[in-house]
């Protein structure tokens, strides 16, 4: 069975089609926002975990899921979805490893997006 790509090429193509004649400027802008914002949301997960704020925790996981979906960061989207659903159903018990997964998948997505933007 083929491995899921880190970044869905169709999502990148869809973003490129929004401004096809801009030399990927729009894509670079969207990637820059994602790369700047996602670490803040991951930090927010850790802060909410420490303070016990489940509502904000779920919202941060949902935000990561949405932004990664927009960029086609499939593995990150999946990790954030698992985290969000777990927190909704069971609170924050046992989420530390899931937060680590989100952090790891973000790192992989960030590297792949940097490669894609550089080569375009």
Which structural category fits the helices and strands?
Answer: mainly alpha
Helix percent band: over 70%
* Number of extended strands: 0
Number of domains: 1
Major β-sheet, in short?
none
Helix-strand pattern? HHHHH
Q: The CATH topology is what?
A: Four Helix Bundle (Hemerythrin (Met), subunit A)
Which radius of gyration do the C-alpha atoms yield? 15 Å
Question: Could you say which overall geometry the principal axes of the C-alpha atoms support?
Answer: elongated
Report a brief summary of the structure.
It is built from five helices and no strands.
Provide an overview of this structure.
The protein is mainly α and 120 residues long. It has a single domain (24-119), classed as Up-down Bundle (Four Helix Bundle (Hemerythrin (Met), subunit A)), CATH 1.20.120.160. The chain is 80% helix and 0% strand. It has helices spanning 9-18, 25-51, 54-71, 74-90, 96-119. Helix 2 packs antiparallel against helix 5 (96-119) and helix 4 runs antiparallel to helix 5 (96-119). The longest helix is centred in the first third of the chain and has 27 residues, at 25-51. It is elongated. 28% of the residues are buried. The model has no long low-confidence stretch (mean pLDDT 94).
Could you outline the blueprint of secondary structure elements for this entry?
Layout: H1 9-18, H2 25-51, H3 54-71, H4 74-90, H5 96-119
Helix pairs in contact: 2-3, 2-5, 3-4, 4-5
């Amino acid at each position: 069975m083929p491995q899921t790509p880190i970044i869905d090429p169709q999502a990148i193509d869809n973003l490129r089609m929004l401004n096809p004649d801009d030399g990927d400027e729009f894509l670079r802008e969207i990637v820059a926002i994602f790369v700047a914002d996602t670490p803040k949301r991951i930090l927010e997960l850790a802060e909410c975990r420490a303070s016990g704020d489940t509502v904000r925790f779920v919202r941060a996981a949902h935000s990561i899921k949405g932004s990664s979906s927009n960029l086609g960061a499939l593995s990150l989207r999946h990790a954030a979805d698992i985290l969000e659903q777990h927190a909704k159903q069971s609170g924050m018990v046992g989420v530390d490893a899931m937060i680590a997964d989100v952090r790891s998948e973000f790192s992989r997505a960030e590297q792949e997006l940097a490669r894609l933007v550089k080569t375009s």
